[in-house]
Amino acid sequence: MTTKVLMVCLGNICRSPTAHGxxxxxxxxxxxxxxxxxxxxxxxxxxxxxAPDPRTQQxxxxxxxxxSHLRARQVTVADLDDYDWVIAMDRQNRQNLLxxxxxxxxxxxxxxxxxxxxxxxxxxxxxxxGEQGFExxxxxxxxxxxxxxxxxxxxxxxxxxxxxxRPLYI
Length: 170
Description:
5 helices; alpha/beta; 4 strands
C-alpha cells in the first residue's frame, strides 16, 4: 500500500515545494520511494505551471535539495480524497483546504509544524522577505518533515504488521 503526502501553501512556489523537495529527499534516503509518494500544490492559481521561486531554489540547493523539476499546480477537491496526508503550511491554507473537504477527509488535513510538536504554528511565507526568510523556512521544514516521515514510517509498520499472513502448509 502506497502512502500519498500532499504539501500545500498559497502559491506553490516557496513553502510547499520546499517541503516537497525535502520530504522527497528524505524518502529517497530511507529507500521508501516505492512506499511513499509526495507532491505539492497551492490553494491559489497565480503560479500554475511555474517553477519554484528562484530564491527558494537557491536556498534549497545550498542544502542539497533540487527543486528544479517541480511545477506549481492548484490543489483540487480530488486531491483531498486521493492523498492520505494533506499538509498545510499555515492556518489560512489549512482553513481553505477544510472548506473544500468532505467530512470523510477533513482529518487528513494538518499543519506541517504540528508534526514537530508545534501546535497551531505556521511556516511563514518568505516571498516578500529577504534571504534569511528562506533559510528560516528550510530550518523549520527540515525538522517538521523528518518528524512527519517518522510518523508515516510508524503507520506503515503498523499496516504491515496488521496485514493478514498466509497460513503455512507443510
